[in-house]
Every structure is written in C-alpha cells, then in structure tokens.
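Design request, tokens follow.
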C-alpha cells in the first residue's frame, strides 16, 4: 500500500514522544509498504537531519511552521470556530505541497499525525485531480487522524471526509442548497 504521513514536525531525529511515535510508525510501515512523509522543517539544518529517515521512506519538506505570536493566537481563538491547536500549523505552503503530491500520485491511506494536522485531512479528501479520469486519492482511501480523543473530536467538528467521493457528495449537496 501507499501511505502518506502528514507530520507536524520532523520525525527524525526521534527526540521526544511525538517524533518517536511518528518515526516508529513510519519505520514499521515502510518495511512492507511505500511510505511518504510530508513534514515541516524550520531550516536547512533540520532538513539535513532528516537524511537517515530518507533511507526508510520518501521525505518531502515544507519550511515552517511560522510562529504565531500571542496577539495573533488570541485573535484567531476568538474569531475562529476552530481550537487554537487546529491553527498551530496552518500553512499555505503545506497545502500547496499537499496538492502537488496529490496531483502526481494516489495514496491508499493518509495519516495525519497530531491534532495540528487534522485540518489537512480535509484538504487531502477534497483535492481535485488534474485529470478527472484518474483519481489521485482512491475512493476508499481513509484519512485518519492519530486516534486521540482531541483529534477525533476535531475531526468530527471539521467534517473531515474519508474519501473524495464523500467530499464531492457533500460539496454537491452544499451547492444545491445555494
């Protein structure tokens, strides 16, 4: 199977609980599957540190995430229906990189690691294909938050879709109401 991991931070070197979890999941799955990891890297040094991970899976990086100051965090907490954690790694560059990946290939599973990445599942599920005949996300490709109660709650609240087929149906129903 082809598996895409959406990582909120570089999973290598595996320092800290989150990085260890992501690294071990990738390492275990890469033994039998084709794994791609789309992750943030704050700078060139962090990107170079991912070299050992590249021996296990394909690694794609996006610069960032940009730091959000206290004032911006307070404003978005008040103005957005989403929790602060859902906005922590919000990045147009990441959305663009994700869309580029889906423009080139299909994945059987898209795994969002950590609550901060759950919003990208919606992008993955609704990503339109460049050629409609060839779907980039298979109709039954599950988009999976990391399983924590918070991610599950966020997924429910953000209407994350399990497949492009469901996303298109919801989009069509929404357009019909207009």
């Amino acid at each position: 199977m082809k598996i895409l991991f959406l990582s909120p931070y570089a999973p290598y070197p595996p320092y800290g609980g989150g990085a260890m979890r992501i690294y071990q999941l990738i390492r275990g799955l890469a033994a039998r599957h084709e794994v791609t990891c789309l992750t943030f890297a704050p700078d060139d040094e962090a990107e170079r540190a991912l070299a050992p991970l590249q021996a296990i899976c394909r690694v794609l990086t996006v610069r960032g995430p940009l730091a959000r100051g206290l004032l911006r965090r307070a404003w978005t907490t008040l103005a957005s229906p989403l929790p602060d954690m859902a906005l922590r790694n919000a990045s147009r560059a990441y959305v663009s990189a994700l869309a580029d990946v889906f423009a080139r290939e299909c994945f059987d599973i898209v795994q969002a690691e950590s609550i901060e990445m759950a919003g990208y599942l919606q992008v993955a599920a609704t990503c339109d294909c460049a050629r409609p005949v060839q779907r980039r996300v298979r109709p039954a490709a599950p988009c999976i938050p990391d399983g924590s109660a918070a991610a599950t709650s966020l997924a429910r609240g953000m209407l994350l879709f399990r497949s492009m087929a469901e996303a298109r149906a919801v989009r069509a129903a929404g357009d019909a109401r207009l």
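Comment from the thread starter after seeing the answer: thanks! The CA atoms of residues 74 and 84 lie 9 Å apart.
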